[in-house]
Every structure is written in structure tokens, then in C-alpha cells.
Amino acid sequence: MNIPYLITEAVTALLAVTGNVFICMAVLLDKKLRTVTNYFLVSLATADTLVGAVGIPCAIMLDIGVPQCSYYSCMMMICNLILFTMASVYGLLAIAVERYISILRPFQYASLMTTKKSLLFILACWVLALLTSLIPLMGWHKPFTPDDDCLFDSLMYDSYMVYFIFFACMLGPLCVMFFLYARIFMEIKHQIRWIVRWEVEASRRERRRIVIWKELQTAISLFIVLFCFVLCWFPLQILNAVRLFRPTCDIPDDLILAAVILSHLNSVINPVVYVFRMRSFRKAFEKIYSGVCYSASVVQLAESSAAHSFDIKGRKCKIRTTPLPGR
């Protein structure tokens, strides 16, 4: 049993759940944050929360090996890992499409990206992720015997992880996302030049400049989220490809575990990016943090006041039994 790996995964799970639950609660409690873009971010945060709450415990058990585990229990743990990963990929793709429509099709945005349509889009991403994760359950896996321990590598084919998950379900959507963000940044650059060259009225020019600046900052923040996903997940996928195409290459177990931890750290990074890069989430964080501190100070003050009053009541007071003077 690899104790450092278990401790690192446990800390990662705790941070992932805490940070992403905050993102979901911020959008739920603050009406100003209930925008179409943030609905997609909540979907992504939900996937990251499930990675910490369910995915990482499953990954730990699949690495240690669960003895006398039934076929369906073992397969469901594996499918959960794939489900949350694919939900993140399709969620990032949905965010890129939403930003593309917002920047390049601003006049059609209100009709194309209503709250109802965006929620249906999010639901479609989760259904597609679920179907993708259930493919091993349909037969694309190694033979399983009840006497075997439930281990990820002993049950999953590298061909499935590389050809289907990496090449088809990851690289394909990621290429589309990078293309969309390239078009977004090119359009923002074009609009900035247009404002500088053709907008004569100073007040209108300033208003348009502020709008474009906000859109640029949002696009940069979401692109950073995409870049972090690639940075965290590609090492593990590349190791899977090396094992498939170079089976004689001996990859150290510690290197594989480090790549697994790095992939899970992606669920911790996203909330940090939201808070430090997006002013609306930063203000929500400050508001919630100040509210928690205020509540804690009120409770502490109330406890100290109660203790003081109890001390007064507990003191012994002399009772006068003689009449007061003059009576």
C-alpha cells in the first residue's frame, strides 16, 4: 500500500469537494451569478465535485485492488471514473460553444442561449458522457473472473483508453475547442481595432471598450481552465498510449500514480481560477467569507456574554434581612 499516494489523493479529494461546492453554492445564493455561462461552470464544478467525492475513492480502490468484488461493482467503479472525465470534456466543449456564440453571434445569443436551452445542452453533455462511460460495460474489457482483484489495468484494454477515450473523445473535442477560442480571440481583436478606428463618440467608444474588455477577460479565464485540463490530463493519456504502442517499455508505477494524481488535481485548480480570474466569483467569495467570519464572531461574542452572565448569577450575594434605615 502506497501511503504517500493515499494521503495525497485524500487531500486532493477534500480540496476538490470544498472548492467546487463553494462555486455551486455561490451561484445558487447570488442571483447576479445566475447567468448562462455560470450554469455551464456549475455543471463543470459538479463533475469536479463528484471526482473528489466518488471518483478519487474509486481510483484508490482500483489501485489497491478490491478482493472478491462482483463484476458489476468493479465495472461501475471504472465507469464512474470515465463518466466524470467525459463530463468535464463535454462541459468544456459546451462552454467554448457558448462563448463562441456570445462573441461571434451576439444578436442570436439571446434566442440561442436561453436558460431552458442551456440546461438542455448541459443535460445532453451528461447523457453523452454517461453513454461513453458505459461502453466497457457492453463488452470492451478484458475477461473478468470472480477470483481476480478489481484492478483498473487488469480489466481495461489500453486500446479502449487510447483509441476511444484519448483520440476520439478527448483530442477531437479539444481540437474543436482550441479552434473556437482562436476564432473568439481573433474576433475580439478585430472589434477592438474597429472601435479604435471608427467609433467617434467618446462615451460610446468607452462603453463598447468596457464590454469587449469584460468578454476578453472571461474568454481568457475559460481558456486557462481548458489549458489546465490539457496540462493535467495529457500526461496520463500519453502514458496509456506509450503502453499500447510500446508494450516492452517499462513505465514505473510511481510515474503512473503521479500522472493519476495530476489528473485529479485538475478538479482543485478550476475553483481557484474562477475566484482569482473572475471578479464576480471573487466578490462572492469575499461576501461568503466575510459572512462566515461575522457569524463566527457573533457566536463567540454570544458565548462570552453567556459565560459572563452565568458568572454573575453564580456569585454569592448577601441578602439584607434588617429593615432599611428610616422605615
UniProtKB/TrEMBL annotation:
Membrane topology: Multi-pass membrane protein
Residue ranges annotated for the G-protein coupled receptors family 1 profile domain, each copy included: 19-274
SUPFAM superfamilies: Family A G protein-coupled receptor-like (SSF81321)
Keyword field contains Cell membrane: yes
Gene3D superfamilies, A to Z: Rhodopsin 7-helix transmembrane proteins (1.20.1070.10)
InterPro entries linked to this entry: Adenosn_rcpt, GPCR_Rhodpsn, GPCR_Rhodpsn_7TM
Sample GO molecular function, one term: G protein-coupled adenosine receptor activity
Identification of the protein by name: G-protein coupled receptors family 1 profile domain-containing protein
Organism: Pleurodeles waltl (Iberian ribbed newt)
